[in-house]
Amino acid sequence: MPFLLIDFPAFKPIAIEIGPFAIRWYALAYICGIVFGWLYARSLLRKERLWGGPAPMSLVQIDDFILWVTLGIILGGRTGYVLFYNLPFFIDHPAAIFRLWEGGMSFHGGFLGCVVAVMWFAYRNGISILSLGDITTAVAPVGLLLGRIANFINGELWGRATDPSLPWAMIFPNDPTQLPRHPSQLYEAGMEGILLFSALAIMIRFGALKRPGMILGSFILIYGLTRIIGEHFREPDAQLGYLRGGLTMGMLLSIPMLIVGLILIVLAVRRGAPKPIEAVR
After folding, report:
1. Where are the transmembrane segments (predicted)?
2. Which of 3, 203, 209, 237 is the most exposed place for a label (fewest CB within 10 A)?
3. Comparing C-alpha atoms, which of 52, 97, 53 is closest to residue 78?
Protein backbone atom coordinates (compact mmCIF):
# COMPACT_ATOMS: atom_id res chain seq x y z
CA MET A 1 0.00 0.00 0.00
CA PRO A 2 2.00 3.03 -1.26
CA PHE A 3 0.34 5.49 1.11
CA LEU A 4 2.24 3.86 3.99
CA LEU A 5 5.61 4.87 2.55
CA ILE A 6 7.67 7.34 4.57
CA ASP A 7 8.69 10.48 2.70
CA PHE A 8 12.46 10.75 2.55
CA PRO A 9 13.52 13.82 4.57
CA ALA A 10 14.67 16.71 2.38
CA PHE A 11 18.20 17.21 3.67
CA LYS A 12 20.57 19.74 2.21
CA PRO A 13 23.90 18.20 1.10
CA ILE A 14 25.87 20.91 2.94
CA ALA A 15 25.85 20.80 6.74
CA ILE A 16 27.69 24.05 7.47
CA GLU A 17 28.15 26.97 5.10
CA ILE A 18 29.87 30.26 5.97
CA GLY A 19 30.44 32.39 2.89
CA PRO A 20 32.54 30.39 0.42
CA PHE A 21 33.40 27.88 3.14
CA ALA A 22 31.21 24.76 3.17
CA ILE A 23 31.36 21.42 4.99
CA ARG A 24 29.28 18.55 3.64
CA TRP A 25 27.60 15.99 5.89
CA TYR A 26 30.02 13.23 4.92
CA ALA A 27 33.06 15.36 5.80
CA LEU A 28 31.40 16.43 9.05
CA ALA A 29 30.82 12.76 9.93
CA TYR A 30 34.53 12.04 9.48
CA ILE A 31 35.56 15.09 11.52
CA CYS A 32 33.17 14.37 14.39
CA GLY A 33 33.95 10.65 14.33
CA ILE A 34 37.68 11.31 14.69
CA VAL A 35 37.22 13.95 17.41
CA PHE A 36 34.73 11.90 19.48
CA GLY A 37 36.83 8.77 19.01
CA TRP A 38 39.94 10.62 20.18
CA LEU A 39 38.16 11.87 23.32
CA TYR A 40 36.84 8.38 24.08
CA ALA A 41 40.31 6.87 23.59
CA ARG A 42 41.80 9.37 26.03
CA SER A 43 39.15 8.51 28.61
CA LEU A 44 39.95 4.79 28.30
CA LEU A 45 43.69 5.40 28.68
CA ARG A 46 43.13 7.35 31.90
CA LYS A 47 41.50 4.35 33.61
CA GLU A 48 44.30 2.03 34.72
CA ARG A 49 41.84 -0.51 36.12
CA LEU A 50 40.71 -1.30 32.57
CA TRP A 51 44.27 -2.27 31.63
CA GLY A 52 45.24 -4.00 34.86
CA GLY A 53 47.93 -1.40 35.43
CA PRO A 54 49.40 1.56 33.54
CA ALA A 55 47.98 2.01 30.04
CA PRO A 56 50.29 0.75 27.25
CA MET A 57 50.62 4.25 25.78
CA SER A 58 50.53 7.84 26.99
CA LEU A 59 47.97 10.53 26.27
CA VAL A 60 50.58 12.40 24.27
CA GLN A 61 51.16 9.36 22.09
CA ILE A 62 47.44 8.90 21.37
CA ASP A 63 47.29 12.60 20.47
CA ASP A 64 50.10 12.09 17.96
CA PHE A 65 48.49 8.93 16.61
CA ILE A 66 45.34 10.77 15.55
CA LEU A 67 47.09 12.27 12.51
CA TRP A 68 48.42 8.87 11.49
CA VAL A 69 45.08 7.09 11.76
CA THR A 70 43.29 9.95 9.96
CA LEU A 71 45.65 9.58 7.00
CA GLY A 72 45.18 5.81 7.13
CA ILE A 73 41.39 6.15 7.00
CA ILE A 74 41.36 8.64 4.12
CA LEU A 75 44.13 7.16 1.98
CA GLY A 76 43.09 3.56 2.65
CA GLY A 77 39.39 4.25 2.22
CA ARG A 78 39.86 5.98 -1.11
CA THR A 79 42.36 3.43 -2.39
CA GLY A 80 40.04 0.60 -1.40
CA TYR A 81 37.11 2.16 -3.25
CA VAL A 82 39.21 2.67 -6.38
CA LEU A 83 40.56 -0.89 -6.38
CA PHE A 84 37.56 -2.85 -5.09
CA TYR A 85 34.54 -0.99 -6.43
CA ASN A 86 35.24 1.08 -9.54
CA LEU A 87 38.70 0.38 -10.96
CA PRO A 88 37.77 0.53 -14.70
CA PHE A 89 36.26 4.01 -14.26
CA PHE A 90 39.30 5.38 -12.42
CA ILE A 91 41.69 3.88 -14.97
CA ASP A 92 39.86 5.92 -17.62
CA HIS A 93 39.55 8.98 -15.36
CA PRO A 94 42.60 9.03 -13.04
CA ALA A 95 42.06 12.67 -12.01
CA ALA A 96 38.74 11.63 -10.41
CA ILE A 97 40.66 9.66 -7.77
CA PHE A 98 41.44 12.93 -5.98
CA ARG A 99 37.86 14.31 -6.05
CA LEU A 100 37.01 13.05 -2.57
CA TRP A 101 34.15 15.52 -2.22
CA GLU A 102 32.21 13.50 -4.80
CA GLY A 103 32.12 10.51 -2.42
CA GLY A 104 33.50 7.02 -2.78
CA MET A 105 35.17 5.51 0.28
CA SER A 106 35.56 1.85 1.21
CA PHE A 107 35.42 0.69 4.83
CA HIS A 108 37.60 -2.32 4.11
CA GLY A 109 40.22 -0.11 2.45
CA GLY A 110 40.05 2.35 5.33
CA PHE A 111 40.44 -0.51 7.79
CA LEU A 112 43.56 -1.76 6.01
CA GLY A 113 44.88 1.81 6.03
CA CYS A 114 44.35 1.93 9.80
CA VAL A 115 46.16 -1.41 10.18
CA VAL A 116 49.19 0.04 8.41
CA ALA A 117 49.02 3.20 10.56
CA VAL A 118 48.75 1.16 13.79
CA MET A 119 51.67 -1.12 12.90
CA TRP A 120 53.93 1.73 11.78
CA PHE A 121 53.16 4.02 14.73
CA ALA A 122 53.45 1.19 17.26
CA TYR A 123 56.81 0.13 15.83
CA ARG A 124 58.21 3.67 15.87
CA ASN A 125 57.05 4.32 19.44
CA GLY A 126 57.68 0.94 21.06
CA ILE A 127 53.98 0.30 21.71
CA SER A 128 52.21 -3.06 21.59
CA ILE A 129 50.59 -3.36 18.17
CA LEU A 130 47.71 -5.38 19.63
CA SER A 131 47.01 -2.87 22.41
CA LEU A 132 47.06 0.06 19.99
CA GLY A 133 44.77 -1.96 17.73
CA ASP A 134 42.45 -2.54 20.69
CA ILE A 135 42.12 1.15 21.51
CA THR A 136 41.69 2.08 17.85
CA THR A 137 38.91 -0.42 17.20
CA ALA A 138 37.21 0.33 20.53
CA VAL A 139 36.46 3.84 19.29
CA ALA A 140 35.91 3.00 15.60
CA PRO A 141 32.14 2.32 15.88
CA VAL A 142 31.62 6.01 16.66
CA GLY A 143 32.87 6.93 13.20
CA LEU A 144 30.94 4.08 11.58
CA LEU A 145 27.70 5.27 13.16
CA LEU A 146 28.16 8.85 11.98
CA GLY A 147 29.30 7.73 8.53
CA ARG A 148 26.19 5.62 7.96
CA ILE A 149 23.95 8.44 9.14
CA ALA A 150 25.72 10.70 6.63
CA ASN A 151 25.02 8.11 3.91
CA PHE A 152 21.34 8.31 4.82
CA ILE A 153 21.29 12.11 4.87
CA ASN A 154 22.93 12.14 1.42
CA GLY A 155 20.34 9.69 0.11
CA GLU A 156 23.08 7.31 -1.11
CA LEU A 157 23.89 3.62 -0.74
CA TRP A 158 20.20 2.87 -0.33
CA GLY A 159 18.71 -0.53 0.35
CA ARG A 160 17.19 -3.18 -1.84
CA ALA A 161 13.65 -2.85 -3.16
CA THR A 162 11.03 -4.11 -0.73
CA ASP A 163 7.29 -4.55 -0.34
CA PRO A 164 5.52 -1.15 -0.26
CA SER A 165 3.58 -2.34 2.79
CA LEU A 166 6.76 -2.28 4.90
CA PRO A 167 5.96 0.60 7.30
CA TRP A 168 9.42 2.18 7.09
CA ALA A 169 10.06 1.64 3.35
CA MET A 170 11.29 4.75 1.60
CA ILE A 171 11.65 6.11 -1.92
CA PHE A 172 15.00 7.85 -2.26
CA PRO A 173 14.90 10.95 -4.48
CA ASN A 174 18.12 10.04 -6.32
CA ASP A 175 16.97 6.51 -7.11
CA PRO A 176 16.16 6.35 -10.85
CA THR A 177 13.76 3.42 -10.32
CA GLN A 178 11.76 5.23 -7.59
CA LEU A 179 10.99 1.93 -5.91
CA PRO A 180 10.24 1.57 -2.19
CA ARG A 181 13.45 0.45 -0.51
CA HIS A 182 14.93 -0.54 2.84
CA PRO A 183 16.66 2.39 4.59
CA SER A 184 19.66 0.07 4.92
CA GLN A 185 21.96 2.93 5.93
CA LEU A 186 20.05 3.10 9.23
CA TYR A 187 20.21 -0.67 9.65
CA GLU A 188 23.98 -0.49 9.25
CA ALA A 189 24.23 2.51 11.59
CA GLY A 190 22.45 0.46 14.24
CA MET A 191 24.54 -2.69 13.77
CA GLU A 192 27.99 -1.29 12.89
CA GLY A 193 27.64 1.70 15.19
CA ILE A 194 25.37 1.25 18.22
CA LEU A 195 25.43 -2.56 18.53
CA LEU A 196 29.17 -2.90 17.90
CA PHE A 197 30.08 -0.01 20.21
CA SER A 198 27.88 -1.41 22.99
CA ALA A 199 29.31 -4.92 22.66
CA LEU A 200 32.90 -3.68 22.82
CA ALA A 201 32.14 -1.28 25.70
CA ILE A 202 30.67 -4.15 27.75
CA MET A 203 33.70 -6.31 27.00
CA ILE A 204 36.01 -3.48 28.04
CA ARG A 205 34.12 -3.06 31.30
CA PHE A 206 34.68 -6.75 32.05
CA GLY A 207 38.42 -6.56 31.44
CA ALA A 208 38.92 -7.29 27.73
CA LEU A 209 41.65 -4.65 27.41
CA LYS A 210 43.78 -6.73 29.78
CA ARG A 211 44.07 -9.32 27.02
CA PRO A 212 45.83 -7.61 24.07
CA GLY A 213 44.09 -8.35 20.79
CA MET A 214 40.71 -9.28 22.31
CA ILE A 215 38.93 -6.04 21.40
CA LEU A 216 40.66 -5.92 18.02
CA GLY A 217 39.60 -9.48 17.18
CA SER A 218 36.06 -8.92 18.47
CA PHE A 219 35.68 -5.77 16.40
CA ILE A 220 36.83 -7.53 13.24
CA LEU A 221 34.58 -10.54 13.85
CA ILE A 222 31.44 -8.62 14.84
CA TYR A 223 31.85 -6.06 12.08
CA GLY A 224 32.26 -8.84 9.52
CA LEU A 225 29.06 -10.49 10.73
CA THR A 226 27.01 -7.28 10.84
CA ARG A 227 28.29 -6.17 7.43
CA ILE A 228 27.30 -9.48 5.84
CA ILE A 229 23.85 -9.21 7.44
CA GLY A 230 23.50 -5.60 6.31
CA GLU A 231 24.48 -6.50 2.74
CA HIS A 232 21.30 -8.62 2.51
CA PHE A 233 19.30 -5.37 2.70
CA ARG A 234 21.64 -3.06 0.79
CA GLU A 235 21.52 -2.55 -2.97
CA PRO A 236 24.88 -3.55 -4.51
CA ASP A 237 26.89 -0.85 -6.27
CA ALA A 238 25.45 -0.40 -9.77
CA GLN A 239 28.82 -0.88 -11.49
CA LEU A 240 29.35 -4.23 -9.73
CA GLY A 241 25.95 -5.76 -9.08
CA TYR A 242 25.85 -9.26 -7.63
CA LEU A 243 28.91 -11.48 -7.79
CA ARG A 244 29.07 -15.26 -8.09
CA GLY A 245 26.59 -17.08 -5.87
CA GLY A 246 24.61 -13.94 -5.12
CA LEU A 247 27.43 -12.45 -3.05
CA THR A 248 28.18 -8.74 -3.02
CA MET A 249 31.60 -7.12 -2.83
CA GLY A 250 30.89 -6.10 0.76
CA MET A 251 30.17 -9.72 1.69
CA LEU A 252 33.23 -11.01 -0.13
CA LEU A 253 35.55 -8.56 1.61
CA SER A 254 33.99 -9.33 5.01
CA ILE A 255 34.43 -13.10 4.90
CA PRO A 256 38.20 -12.98 5.64
CA MET A 257 37.41 -10.68 8.58
CA LEU A 258 35.48 -13.51 10.26
CA ILE A 259 38.52 -15.77 10.08
CA VAL A 260 41.04 -13.15 11.20
CA GLY A 261 38.81 -11.93 14.03
CA LEU A 262 38.26 -15.44 15.36
CA ILE A 263 42.00 -16.21 15.25
CA LEU A 264 42.84 -13.03 17.18
CA ILE A 265 40.22 -13.82 19.84
CA VAL A 266 41.51 -17.38 20.30
CA LEU A 267 45.10 -16.14 20.59
CA ALA A 268 44.08 -13.46 23.11
CA VAL A 269 42.31 -16.05 25.27
CA ARG A 270 45.26 -18.45 25.14
CA ARG A 271 47.75 -15.67 25.83
CA GLY A 272 45.80 -14.59 28.90
CA ALA A 273 46.03 -11.32 30.76
CA PRO A 274 49.50 -10.01 31.65
CA LYS A 275 50.41 -10.51 35.28
CA PRO A 276 50.64 -7.34 37.37
CA ILE A 277 54.14 -6.20 38.22
CA GLU A 278 54.84 -6.87 41.89
CA ALA A 279 56.64 -4.34 43.98
CA VAL A 280 60.32 -5.02 44.61
CA ARG A 281 60.87 -6.17 48.19
Report:
1. 25-45, 65-85, 105-123, 135-153, 186-206, 213-230, 250-269
2. 3
3. 97
